[in-house]
Amino acid sequence: MPRTYIDERWQPNSLLTNLDRFIAKKERLKSAIIDLLKNDLHKNSVNMGRADQGLNQGVRYQAVLRVLVFLRNESDVLLIKGASNKRIWPNLFNGVGGHVETREDVMSAAKREVQEETGLLIDPLDLRAVVNIDAGDRNRGIMMFAFVGWTNNRQTVASPEGALQWISIDKICEYPLVEDLYWLIPRIIERKSGQPPLYLHYDYDQADRLVIEKSD
After folding, report:
1. Beta strands 162-168 and 140-150: pairing type?
2. pTM passes above 0.85
3. How far apart are CA 63 and CA 61, in angstroms?
4. Whether residues 40 and 71 fall in one domain
5. In angstroms, what CA-CA distances link 143 with 29, 76, 183, 185, 201?
6. Same domain, 39 and 127
7. Cβ(84)–Cβ(75) under 8 Å?
8. What's the angle, vertex CA 114, arms to CA 98 and CA 127, rounded to 5?
9. Which H or E run contains 62?
10. Separation CA 129–CA 216 (nearest Å)
């Protein structure tokens, strides 16, 4: 009986082995190219230290960074009524928030402020507005980042900043709010996730009345 010879190169297992080797070789080549590019970029780059950020090169506009968060639960929004002894906005309702610390990005600051003031862990938050606020100093202002988040948990902890309260969005105008919120809350609540944030500028006229400008 004649013998039947089978070329091992055409056996399924052998084919898969060769395919695996080809893929592995391709990945090694890709990795080597990336490393080469990184090395070239590093060789051509110039080290940039803190002084190169230009913070102290003459008088330039600088901003204090703040975050403001509005948490949603069904048709309600969580606001905080400022304590009567607060320096700014005592007895007025506001979103939860505060200042951005030195080693924070604005998203991390917003999540931290929510946890500190409400006890809630919210992730993700959606950036809905960036506001440049002119507070009367031509060289220094406030840059505020307003976020909206959702939660199924209505149980909050007591906050030294004031009293937390869930308020129906339809009734927020019946409450004593920080002045800009009558305009701001409806507009950032109605924006859909994924839309670009509003870009706003707050200023004050000669009678010290708030003027809100929106970028197109």
Report:
1. unpaired
2. no
3. 7
4. no
5. 46, 27, 18, 17, 9
6. no
7. no
8. 80
9. strand 62-73
10. 13
